[in-house]
């Protein structure tokens, strides 16, 4: 069995950027990616340097794969089911029962978003439907926007995007409990609140036109922000190795090196506590790769 210098679990911006850096160090690298991360679903990123017209997550991933393959990095599209340490090596097993061995590990497994999957939604993600206000708040500037969410997290999102637009409605999915304090805040800002179950999203080529409820109500909007709460970092594999996390499930790392509490194990991207920007995730991956190389270099002396 070949032993890789580093196995990267996760092939989004963090994992791919780490692979580029490690490939340029001429390290033997394997990326194992299930292909189901947030970047694979996003139709358009509009806040990345060099892409003023925007770029899809799929395009970034395809270009990233072409880049790393030219550097000799191996990529397999599989889901990892188990990781463990055997003496000095890390063993990665996939759901297809393939086994890989590495001297070091980088977890770049991203975040699992929580929202209902209704017809029309997937086509709009990143184009007219958004998750992260730091990434895409600018896109709703002066636009009629629905916050489609649940309870207090949705009310908090209203407060956040109120900076960019005042033309907001809040659709509280399933009439989820809303605290009196949050409800008063919405009333003070004169934000209409609709208690309904959204069943589909009417769109045309990714541009949302309206939300429709189970009772037949519909709301014409230009943009939507999702705010359901409950998104969780995908850290189950890291946890199984004994990697320390905070109370929200984010992996804790040494800020400079991105190494976890376990020697030889790093983490990067949205599984860390930071703004969920593609550029931040990629920077994490590059930074982790620098220190993975340094660590591997020290092991050879």
What does this structure look like?
The protein is an alpha/beta fold and 301 residues long. It has helices at residues 13-24, 38-41, 57-70, 121-124, 133-136, 151-161, 180-188, 236-241, 278-299, and strands at 3-4, 6-9, 29-32, 74-76, 80-86, 89-94, 99-102, 105-107, 111-112, 129-130, 145-149, 168-173, 193-196, 198-204, 207-213, 218-220, 223-227, 232-233, 265-267. Strands 4-3-2-8-19 form a five-stranded parallel β-sheet, with helices on one face. Strands 10-17-11-12-13 form a five-stranded parallel β-sheet. Strand 12 (168-173), helix 7 and strand 13 form a beta-alpha-beta unit. Helix 6 (151-161) packs parallel to helix 7. The radius of gyration is 21 Å and the shape is elongated. 40% of the residues are buried.
**SSE string, helix = H, strand = E?**
EEHEHHEEEEEEHEHEHEHEEEEEEHEH
Total count of helical runs of at least 4 residues: 9
| Low-pLDDT windows of residues | none
Computed CA radius of gyration, to the nearest angstrom:
21 Å
Mean pLDDT: 94
- Helix-strand makeup class: alpha/beta
Strand order of the largest sheet: 4-3-2-8-19
Helix content: 25-40%
Distance between the termini: 24 Å
Percent strand: 25-35%
Number of strands: 19
The geometry reads as elongated
Largest sheet: 5 strands, parallel
